[in-house]
């Protein structure tokens, strides 16, 4: 087992330097996720013990790649990764806001309960991602769809000036190769700090191939 997989709350705080208030919110989120996951399939149960690395650090690292971005859209927000973590980290920053978009009502209800309890700068939207018209700095997603399909979901955000930062796995490069058959875009593949197999894919200037 890698060192990263053993990350606990204290280790996450030491690594990131976040405040005690942020840690309190992240811990409350962990508790709510654990309770809800007992009767909803939000995350794989085996991943819960690795919450601080697999879910929180994995999400939080996106801010290192867009430190000035204040507005984010999380497509297929699901259990709240990365969107809820981003909202917790952005809480208190003027004009910061995260849109949590998901097509499943019960997941939206879970997300709304967390947003309300933690007073997060976030809006939960129940609907299909490709039908939403939000203007944001960054559009993101994790474990939603292959890149070719995901770019279709994200196109309305790109059309309004967003950049993309997507959490992907070890097949990221292969997904990009397939996506270039349908899209034209600029891409950079970056390493993940939470998993040696993970990738962060930065996308810009998206256009569909005519």
Question: Which secondary structure elements does this structure contain, and how are they paired or packed?
Answer:
Elements: H1 9-16, H2 20-37, H3 51-60, H4 62-65, E1 71-75, H5 83-90, E2 97-102, H6 105-118, E3 122-126, E4 138-142, H7 147-159, E5 163-168, H8 172-179, E6 183-191, E7 199-208
What do these coordinates show?
The chain is an alpha/beta fold. Helix content is 40%, strand content 22%. It has helices at 9-16, 20-37, 51-60, 62-65, 83-90, 105-118, 147-159, 172-179, and strands spanning 71-75, 97-102, 122-126, 138-142, 163-168, 183-191, 199-208. β4 (138-142), α7 and β5 form a beta-alpha-beta unit. α7 packs across α8 (172-179). It is globular and about 50 Å long.
Radius of gyration: 16 Å
Sheet with the most strands? 7 strands, mixed
Task: Quote the beta fraction.
Answer: 15-25%
**DSSP helix count?**
8
Distance between the termini: 47 Å
Mean pLDDT: 94
Helix and strand run: HHHHEHEHEEHEHEE
- Give the strand order, joined by hyphens, for the main sheet: 3-2-1-4-5-7-6
| Portion of residues within helices | 25-40%
Stretches with pLDDT under 50, minimum 5 residues: 1-5
So what's the overall shape? globular
Give the helix/strand class. alpha/beta
Structure summary, number of beta strands:
7
Quaternary status: single chain
């Amino acid at each position: 087992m890698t060192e990263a997989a053993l990350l606990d709350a204290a280790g996450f705080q030491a690594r990131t330097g976040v405040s005690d208030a942020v840690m309190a919110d992240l811990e409350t989120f962990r508790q709510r996720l654990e309770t809800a996951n007992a009767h909803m399939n939000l995350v794989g149960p085996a991943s819960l013990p690795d919450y601080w690395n697999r879910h929180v650090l994995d999400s939080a690292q996106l801010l290192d790649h867009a430190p000035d971005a204040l507005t984010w859209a999380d497509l297929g927000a699901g259990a709240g990764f990365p969107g809820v973590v981003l909202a917790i980290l952005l809480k208190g920053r003027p004009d910061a806001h995260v849109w949590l978009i998901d097509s499943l009502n019960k997941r939206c209800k879970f997300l709304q309960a967390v947003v309300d309890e933690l007073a997060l700068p976030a809006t939960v939207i129940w609907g299909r991602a490709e039908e939403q018209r939000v203007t944001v700095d960054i559009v993101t997603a994790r474990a939603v769809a292959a890149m070719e399909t995901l770019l279709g979901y994200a196109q309305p955000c790109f059309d309004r000036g967003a950049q993309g930062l997507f959490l992907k796995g070890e097949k990221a490069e292969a997904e990009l190769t397939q996506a270039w058959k349908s899209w034209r875009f600029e891409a950079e593949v970056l390493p993940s700090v939470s998993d040696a197999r993970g990738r962060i894919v930065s996308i810009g200037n998206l256009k569909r191939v005519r």
